[in-house]
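Example record used in the benchmark description.
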Amino acid sequence: MTFPEGLTSIGEFAFNGCTRLTSVTFAEGLTSIGPSAFSGCKGLTSVTFPKGLTSIGGGAFFGCTGLTSVTFPEGLTSIGYRAFSRCTGLTSV
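Model output (structure tokens):
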């Protein structure tokens, strides 16, 4: 799934439990990802964060067991509590 330009935030629980979601690409302009926005998305294997992202909410990717690698953009200032907790496949940050 590719999000459009102009989107500035993803709300709390927006895609919670979407098990068929496999990849997410955010366009520049996104500044925040809300708490538990993608929690429980077990099929999620790839996330591309945009330059300019400043905040990832608590539990945002909680239980995304398919994630293996995450690269954070410059300027990220806040990662909430348990944002990547139980991401058991995560081997590289």
